[in-house]
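Review box. Two proteins, two foldings.
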Amino acid sequence: MRARSNLRNAVAFAVPLALALTATTFAVADEAGPGWETIRNDAGIQVSRKVVPGSPFVAFRGEGDVDAPLLAVADVLVDVPHETDWMDSVREARILRKVSDTEYVMYSHLGTPPTMSDRELVADVKVSIDADRHALTVDMHSVDDPAAPHTDYVRAVITESSFVLRANPDGRSTHVVAEIHCDPKGSIASWVVNLFQRSWGFNTLKSLRKQVARGAAPANPLLRDRLGNG
């Protein structure tokens, strides 16, 4: 019975961990490149996976539209302090230091079931804005940084992760592509994480849609300066 309970706890945590690691944020194109296998199409969201050579963890991709202008979606993605409002398992999210107007190092604490150690991540986040194409990319990867707090949490590692946003021709909706390749470290078996890959992209886009619809993210002055009305 204990083994079954531990498995359920690991399963319950696998998807929220992937979601939390991503939405904070592989440079990607609008179309999936070679190696991606579509595993789900539902509610206008396409979910894909890709085997990464040398890694026991697969990369995940979620793609779909959000019914809001580009700026509204972008505001949510760069609103670090409020990630706890909509991302599963995120207990704390904050910027450790600012590198530039479009780059920062951030810290996230991720809660887990009682039988598991909490996770954390320290990552470099870069925001790239292409006003001519009405597009924005958030790229993220794990780093070591002296400003990171000293804790007993397990430090997860993001190899590459990104969100790519592009305004649709109607100007009222945004096409979103999210990708991640991460290692949660610790005692979570790779097969458990990979087993629930089907839900990752779907849950990420679904949660993003809900948060954008709330309209609670503060307007980001830099995004408005670079993108105008989006």
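Next protein.
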Amino acid sequence: MDHNHATEAGTGGTGEPEGCFSVESADESLVFVEPVMRDLVEVYQELMRLRTERQELATVLGAEARLADLRGRIEQKVERLKALRQELAGVGCEPKDLVGGLVDFPARFEGRKVWLCWKLGEPSVAWWHELPDGFAGRRPIDAEFRARVRDALASAVEPIRPD
């Protein structure tokens, strides 16, 4: 599936500083991100299945033709995964788990980089975590966090005015 989108590469899709999202812009990007992640999860599952099949056939005599076919199919899946990851990189988010469909969006909070966190099946971006904490350290996004992330972006986007 080809995924067309109208976001600016690397800007969080709404003109924010490179590599930064607001909660709102991360939510807006889900229209594009969700189908790409669904494809990533599906292609990854198929790749794992093909690799298992290849391992099982590796010791079977006379399976050379089938192994060659599997190698070609595996290579196609790997290339497709790279292309899908590149599509997400163009939006500015990062896939973190290809089994569960986890995606992180970089954001700024209290002067530091954090991740806004979304997983396939969730209706919106409702979680965040510090960079080293990962999925286990997810915290719910509340109104105060949302406002602080938005304020951090606004102060970074607005030009400095002379006094």
